[in-house]
Amino acid sequence: MARKPATLDPQRLDNQICFAVYSAAHAFNRVYKPLLDRLGLTYPQYLVMLVLWERDDLPVKEIGEKLFLDSGTLTPLLKRLEAAHLLKRTRSREDERQVLIALTPQGHALKEKARSVPQSILAASKCAVSELVAMKDEIVALRDRLNAVIGE
Amino acid sequence: MARKPATLDPQRLDNQICFAVYSAAHAFNRVYKPLLDRLGLTYPQYLVMLVLWERDDLPVKEIGEKLFLDSGTLTPLLKRLEAAHLLKRTRSREDERQVLIALTPQGHALKEKARSVPQSILAASKCAVSELVAMKDEIVALRDRLNAVIGE
DNA sequence: GCAGATTCAATTGCGAACAATTAAATGTGA
DNA sequence: TCACATTTAATTGTTCGCAATTGAATCTGC
Known about the structure:
CATH architecture of the largest domain in chain A: Orthogonal Bundle
Distance between the termini of chain A: 35 Å
Oligomer: homodimer
Number of helices of chain A: 7
Helix content of chain A: 55-70%
Strand order of the largest sheet of chain A: 1-3-2
Number of domains of chain A: 2
C-alpha cells in the first residue's frame, strides 16, 4: 500500500476545498459581526435585507430561492425582523398560501446605514477588487455545479 | 448621484464574494449529508474526526485551533461523539485544565469507511483536481487574511 | 509562598440551518 | 363537482456557532 505524501492525501483536512470554504465562511462572519452589530442585524438577516433592498414585496419562497434557505430557517428569522420593525409579513390576497414580505420605512432607511459595509469587508480582505470578482465567479460556478448534483 | 450599473453595485447580493462563500458552504454541506449519514456523522463531527485521524490524543483547545471553533461548539459535539463510542474524553494528568481527546478502536476503524468520501465530493464538484487545489489555496489565503484582521 | 492574572473547558442563552411533519389553500383530472 | 395531488408557510426537534460567564488549575511576580 503506497503511502501518499501528505500534500496529496485527500483525507487530510488541509487538502479539502470544502474545509477551506467552511472556514472562510466563518472568518467572513467574524469580520461582519461588529459591522452588523451596529445595524442590529445578524449576517443571515443582513442577507434577507439585501434581497429586499433590491426588490420588495416578495413571498417567503422567493427569498428562500435567492438565499438557498427554506421556511424552517426563514420563518423565525423574518419574525425577528418584523419584531425589529424592519419589515411586515402579510398573507397575499390572491394566494392565501403565500406570505408577502414588505419593508417598513425603517427597513428602507437601513440601506443607507449599511452602505459602508461592503467597503469595510473589501478592506479586510486586503485584496484587489478584480481578484475578488474572479474568485467569486469561480466559487459561484462551483456552488451551482454542487447544487445541480443535489437535484439529481 | 450617479447610479452604478447593477453589475458593479457593491450592495447587490450577487456581487458579494461573502455570499458566494456562504452559499457554497451550504451546498457542500448538502452534498456531504447523504455520504456522512452512512457514517453516522454530521459535517462538523466529520471535521473533528479528520483532525483526530491525522493525530490522536489532542486537547480540546488544539482541535479548536485547527478548525477555528471554540469550546462552546466543541464540548457538546465531542460529548456526542463520545456517546457514539468514537472517542474518549479524559482530563490530562499533567495539566488538569485540559481534556484530551483520544479515538476508540471504532473511531480509528471509521477512517477506512470514510476513505471514499473525498472522491465522491470531487465527482460532485465536476472540476479538475488541479483547479480545485488552486481555488482552495486562494480561499485559504483569503481566510487567513480575514482572520488576521480579526486579531487586530 | 502567595495574591493576582491567565488558561482551559464547561455552561447558558440566542440565532441559524435543516429534516420531517402539519395544515391550509390551490390546482388537476376524471 | 369532487377526490387527490401539489404548493406554501409554519412547527418541532436536533445540531451547530458564538458571546459571555463560571470555576478550577496553573503560572507569574514579588
